């Protein structure tokens, strides 16, 4: 009887450890995905930055309100 209960305990512990490992793997994968998405967003923002001359052109076309916050003053 004791041997059976020990085997059952060992199996339960192994199952719990495996579940925890799987959860950790999934969390790591999620973090990798979110980091990739953040990098893409910052890349897009950096591409959207305009010079002052370009902004003046946009202002002439009535886009100043939309584009002025993207101006990088140099």
From TrEMBL:
UniProt biased composition (Basic and acidic residues): 1-22
Biased composition (Basic residues): 23-44
Annotated region described as Disordered, given as residue ranges: 1-48
Identification of the protein by name: Uncharacterized protein
Organism: Octopus vulgaris (Common octopus)
